[in-house]
Amino acid sequence: AAGGIEVIEAGHPTPDSASLAAGARLLALAGELRDGEILCCLISGGGSSLAAVPLPGITFEQKRAAASFLIRQGADIREINCVRKHLSSLKGGRLAAAAHPHAVRTFAISDVPGDEPADIASGPTLPDSTTQADALVILRRYGYPALGELLPVLGDPACETPKPADPAFGRDTVRLIASAATALDAAARFLDAQGFE
Questions:
Q1: Which 8-state DSSP code applies to residue 2?
Q2: Measured between alpha carbons, how far is 160 from 174 in angstroms, rounded to an integer?
Q3: Which residue, 127, 114, 113, 139, is CA-closest to 174?
Q4: pTM score, two decimals?
């Protein structure tokens, strides 16, 4: 702990055993909320790798291999995160689901084009508009060779991510607090104050 804050360092861009520990700790914290408590989350880029928990039915290595394959094949971040969400017990709104019925407050720092909060760190606190079918289309499009290993979760409707219409998310809020645009604006203001055009 640093100043009373628990710190778990983990791997990026490829998750490691510490990523598993971090993901398990996050789910435990969300499940331990007491009456009147709110789960507050600061979510930023890299979180998909820094905290990882595979769904029951697949191994950590299988989950990691699928994401790593898509990265190597040049898939875009939304495609990679769609697959990650559907292989994870944490992403795609599942961290918030573990905290409900307690409210969840998300503060997001965006590193993704378009600044869609559900795309940042694979949206652990936000319901997911993508589907298992979308994830399967992506994996087939890129020719993922071990697709059969993932079918126990991608083919099971009980493993689908929470959706935006889910009333459990009704009390949750999300606020984008920084992005590439806010960083560029701050740099421009600083340079302007120094006399640069």
A1: B
A2: 22
A3: 127
A4: 0.90
